[in-house]
């Protein structure tokens, strides 16, 4: 009996130990793991005796997103495909094509981001120029995000079958109806290094509007509804310009007089409206067909195209403000008028064309701006944009033809039409600087930093307010003995908006226009004009290696510099593994770090070290190395990624760690924390700091 009781106690104690060890194991697994949410396969298809198609398929784990090559500058890091042994061996046929993607507006970066969901499909056609080529070496650098983000590197070595260098087809396993042949091949997936460099966007945020599309095919319905709505407003605004508005009564009167019956007048007016829509939709189709989705996306993010569009908008704005008139040759309009006199459906079509030509000086700049913006939504964007624009333009002609009596309710043409045109000129001028800012941000020239941008906008909208109040007159303005109530209200709104912009010079976030000016970090002073940091009181300035980060927090971007400072003032360290393009990192900084209690701790109780895992600057040659796993550490981002994986066994961002001066985690139960709310983050900070000795 005693033996049995002793044995039972011993057994129970052993099981308790095993349970504790097992629980500890799962805690470690739950808090530190290397994630690889994409599984890749590859194959090759022979297209001709010289051409082949490389096909890559990735399966993504649930809720993860992989960012496309076509995600624009200023957003998450796009997929980069590098063909390592291309020179002298093969040539690429165009850019790699992508399968089904989604496009989402990212409110943090203010750009549309394109990404794969569930699966990724990529094809690249090549022309083999070296008959002795044995394999194609390809490397993917890509970013995947859920609540955290990971930058991964995948290498492929794709063997070239002997049949690719000959006319033989004996090894072809499947011949397809389209003439292509699928050939079995060996795909050697070399190491999948989790160069987790983060770039960031979150769960490709469900808060944002999501659209589904194929590359080079229609974008999603929701996004296109936005394009349609904005285009419709553009069309309605164009309707109120002096080039278009006076033509409504003249054109409708023409139709009602030329038609034998009221029904004929209504029918002809409807045909006229449909013709207007057809002309503008055809223009949108031609833009899409000539350029294609890839070219449109490239143009939308190209530095020199942004600069060119800035110049174009300034020219348009100068024209709207009265500097000169942009006119198509009069001979065009005369020839079209002659065709319109023939009558019938053909004559009506030419009348619609005449409207487009005559009104070009007012509608041209609007249409140009609209086409540029709509192009970011893929091939279908310009078509939908032109449909919305032309529908707003055509509706009044059709409605007033159906109900001619309504013409009496129209306001008379006059100086107010020129006011609308000038108002549009000011808007064109303001938007022009957004495109110049895009180019400046990409090139990191710092010519158009946040303060300069805001000063320009304050000047433009301030001048617009003075114009609306009648304090400024322009070349084509009529005498203004008094201003209307409507003009007064519009002037007050413009003045209020101008005043709203002013605090932005002193660091106000200006959330209403957050997608337009450069980010707060891209500025002459992180605290705005005349601002200062409460965290830096020494007249000697910041310590070595420190800079001012979000909300004026002193931050180090090198671990050794931050560690040395922490030891000198005897404070714990908070490691912030982040990325320049990490959306959730920015959200944590904007929404959590800004909390007064959290901000006080970050400024006063810890030494913040932010390590950017997507920093592409090369390390000095003597500091580059190869890890035990064979990964090359060549950039600063590689270094911090390796540091994070080696020490904390994870590769996700944002990632926060509180450590003592020996590098040991202060939070024993929760060593690291990621994308959480204010309360949980604050409790984690307080718990860790309380353990610091």
Automatic annotation (TrEMBL):
Membrane-crossing segments per the record: 224-248, 269-291, 303-324, 345-367, 379-403, 415-433, 453-474, 486-506
Keyword Zinc annotated: no
Subcellular location: Membrane
Domain Cytochrome C biogenesis protein transmembrane per the UniProt entry, residue ranges: 225-437
Gene3D superfamilies per record: Glutaredoxin
All residue ranges annotated as the Thiol:disulfide interchange protein DsbD N-terminal domain in the record: 44-156
Matches recorded under SUPFAM superfamilies: Thioredoxin-like
Keywords: Cytochrome c-type biogenesis, Membrane, Transmembrane, Transmembrane helix
GO biological process, one term: cytochrome complex assembly
Highest taxon above the source species: Bacteria
GO molecular function: protein-disulfide reductase activity
Record bears the keyword Transmembrane: yes
InterPro entries linked: Cyt_c_assmbl_TM_dom, DsbDN, Thioredoxin-like_sf
A family per Pfam: DsbD_TM
Signal peptide: none
Bilayer topology term: Multi-pass membrane protein
Gene Ontology cellular-component annotations: membrane
Protein name: Cytochrome c biogenesis protein CcdA
């Amino acid at each position: 009996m005693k033996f049995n009781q002793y044995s039972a106690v011993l057994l129970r104690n052993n099981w308790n130990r095993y349970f504790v060890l097992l629980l500890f194991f799962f805690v470690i697994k739950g808090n530190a793991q290397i994630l690889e949410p994409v599984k890749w396969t590859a194959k090759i298809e022979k297209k001709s005796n010289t051409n082949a198609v490389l096909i890559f398929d990735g399966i993504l784990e649930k809720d993860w997103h992989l960012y496309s090559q076509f995600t624009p500058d200023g957003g998450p890091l796009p997929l980069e495909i590098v063909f390592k042994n291309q020179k002298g061996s093969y040539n690429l046929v165009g850019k790699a094509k992508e399968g089904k993607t989604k496009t989402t507006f990212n409110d943090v970066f203010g750009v549309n981001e394109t990404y794969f969901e569930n699966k990724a499909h990529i094809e690249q056609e090549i022309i083999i120029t070296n008959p002795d080529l044995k394999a194609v070496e390809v490397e993917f650098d890509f970013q995947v995000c859920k609540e955290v983000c990971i930058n991964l590197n995948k290498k492929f070595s794709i063997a070239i079958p002997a049949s690719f260098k000959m006319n033989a087809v004996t090894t072809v396993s499947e011949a397809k109806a389209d003439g292509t042949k699928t050939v079995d091949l060996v795909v050697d997936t070399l190491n999948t290094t989790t160069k987790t460099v983060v770039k960031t966007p979150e769960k490709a945020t469900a808060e944002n509007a999501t659209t589904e599309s194929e590359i080079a095919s229609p974008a999603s319905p929701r996004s296109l509804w936005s394009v349609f709505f904005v285009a419709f407003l553009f069309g309605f605004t164009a309707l109120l310009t002096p080039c278009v508005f006076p033509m409504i009564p003249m054109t409708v009167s023409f139709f009602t007089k030329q038609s034998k019956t009221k029904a004929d007048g209504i029918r002809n007016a409807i045909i006229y409206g449909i013709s207007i829509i057809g002309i503008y939709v055809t223009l949108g189709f031609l833009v899409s067909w000539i350029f294609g989705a890839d070219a449109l996306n490239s143009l939308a993010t190209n530095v020199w195209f942004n600069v060119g569009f800035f110049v174009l908008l300034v020219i348009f704005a100068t024209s709207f403000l009265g500097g000169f008139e942009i006119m198509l040759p009069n001979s065009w309009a005369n020839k079209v008028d002659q065709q319109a006199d023939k009558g019938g459906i053909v004559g009506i079509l030419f009348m619609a064309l005449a409207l487009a030509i005559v009104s070009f000086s007012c509608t041209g700049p609007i249409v140009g701006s609209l086409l540029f913006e709509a192009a970011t939504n893929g091939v279908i964007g310009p078509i939908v944009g032109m449909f919305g624009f032309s529908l707003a333009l055509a509706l009044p002609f059709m409605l007033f033809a159906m109900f001619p009596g309504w013409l009496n309710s129209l306001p008379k043409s006059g100086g107010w039409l020129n006011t609308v045109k000038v108002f549009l000129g000011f808007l064109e001028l303001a938007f022009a600087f957004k495109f110049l800012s895009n180019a400046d941000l990409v090139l990191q020239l710092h010519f158009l930093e946040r303060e300069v941008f805001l000063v320009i906008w304050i000047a433009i909208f301030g001048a617009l307010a003075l114009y609306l109040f009648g304090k400024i007159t322009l070349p084509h303005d009529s005498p203004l003995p008094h201003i209307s109530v409507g003009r007064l209200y519009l002037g007050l709104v413009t003045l209020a908006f101008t005043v709203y912009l002013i605090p932005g010079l002193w660091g106000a976030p200006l959330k209403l226009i957050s997608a337009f000016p450069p980010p707060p970090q891209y500025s002459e002073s992180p605290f705005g004009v005349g601002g200062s940091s409460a965290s830096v009181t020494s007249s000697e300035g910041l310590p070595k290696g420190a800079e001012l980060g979000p909300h004026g927090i002193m931050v180090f971007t090198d671990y050794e510099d931050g560690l040395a400072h922490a030891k000198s003032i005897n404070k714990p360290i908070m490691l912030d593994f982040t990325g320049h393009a990490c959306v959730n990192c920015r959200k944590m900084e904007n929404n959590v770090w800004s909390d007064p209690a959290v901000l006080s701790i970050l400024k006063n109780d810890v030494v913040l070290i932010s390590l950017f895992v997507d920093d592409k600057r090369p390390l000095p040659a003597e500091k580059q190395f190869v890890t035990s796993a064979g990964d090359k550490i060549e950039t600063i981002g590689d270094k911090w990624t390796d540091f994070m994986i080696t020490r904390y066994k994870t590769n996700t961002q944002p990632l926060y760690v509180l450590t003592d001066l020996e590098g040991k985690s202060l939070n024993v139960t929760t060593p690291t924390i990621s994308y959480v709310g204010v309360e949980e983050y604050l409790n984690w900070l307080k718990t860790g700091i309380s353990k610091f000795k």
